[in-house]
Amino acid sequence: MEIALxxxxxxxxxxxxxxxxxxxxxxxxxxxxxxxxxxxGQDPAAHAEMLVLTAARAARGGxxxxxxxxTVTLEPCAMCAGAIAAFRVGRVxxxxxxxxSGGVEHGPRVFSHATTHHKPEVIGGVREADxxxxxxxxxxxxxxx
Length: 145
Description:
Shape: globular
Strand order of the largest sheet: 2-1-3-4-5
Structural class: alpha/beta
Strand content: 15-25%
Radius of gyration: 14 Å
Number of strands: 5
Low-confidence stretches: none
Order of helices and strands: HEEHEHEEH
């Protein structure tokens, strides 16, 4: 999670919503890291999760990431949860819960549907306070401005 937090901090410094992600293989080898880049590329799909999934798959070859763990600072949204299922990621670890836009434990709960083809192991709340504080501090800057 420390690597994901570092990526989230970098994203915040670049004016992006501070979400960071890292994808590791079964041996713990880092395959890809990224922070959000939606503002930089004016791309609403450039979430940290999407960036690491596509980068890792490209670097590794093959279609799926079944032996991998995606660690992200914020509960993935429905778009990212759908991509996680499509890439068949084995495990998702996230920090802060997202009652407003989350798609795993909140909202559409993508992995809980019978029609979802792949359901990863999900571990939420890892370093939740640190991840949530990063987001709160970022958005407080907008309220204070």
